[in-house]
Amino acid sequence: MECLGVSSYQNLQALSALLSTQQEEDEDEESYGQLGPGHIGPPPKKEKEGIKDIWSEEEVAEGSQYDDLADPRPQPEYEIILKQSVGTEDLFLGLSQKDPSSMCCEVKIKLPDTKAKDVFLDLKEKYLDLRTPK
């Protein structure tokens, strides 16, 4: 019986030594940095932020540059309709090139007592500017 006890004890020690060696090798591999395709060539230069800037981009409210504070005219009533009217050309053929996203919304602006020739419309990617004499 003692022979079995000594043999199993030696087996456990050998297994422990084997496992501890693997852990040390794993620790050695983890201590080195992994290299990838991004490490080829010189490192990218960090862009310096504008030292002379008064405000950062996060501090400026989006769309505030389009507000005309000096304009005394009242802002007209408007509706932004995300639910679109779907016709047969949309259902079967897709001819109107509208999709259900907010980029294809409909905007209704109420301009009472205004003629179409007096309306100036400026449509950009981020804003819609409609001006009338009234």
UniProtKB/TrEMBL annotation:
<dbReference type="GO" id="GO:0045505">
    <property type="term" value="F:dynein intermediate chain binding"/>
</dbReference>
<dbReference type="GO" id="GO:0070286">
    <property type="term" value="P:axonemal dynein complex assembly"/>
</dbReference>
<protein>
    <submittedName>
        <fullName>Dynein axonemal assembly factor 6</fullName>
    </submittedName>
</protein>
<dbReference type="InterPro" id="IPR026697">
    <property type="entry name" value="DNAAF6"/>
</dbReference>
<dbReference type="GO" id="GO:0030317">
    <property type="term" value="P:flagellated sperm motility"/>
</dbReference>
<dbReference type="GO" id="GO:0005737">
    <property type="term" value="C:cytoplasm"/>
</dbReference>
<feature type="region of interest" description="Disordered">
    <location>
        <begin position="19"/>
        <end position="51"/>
    </location>
</feature>
<dbReference type="GO" id="GO:0051087">
    <property type="term" value="F:protein-folding chaperone binding"/>
</dbReference>
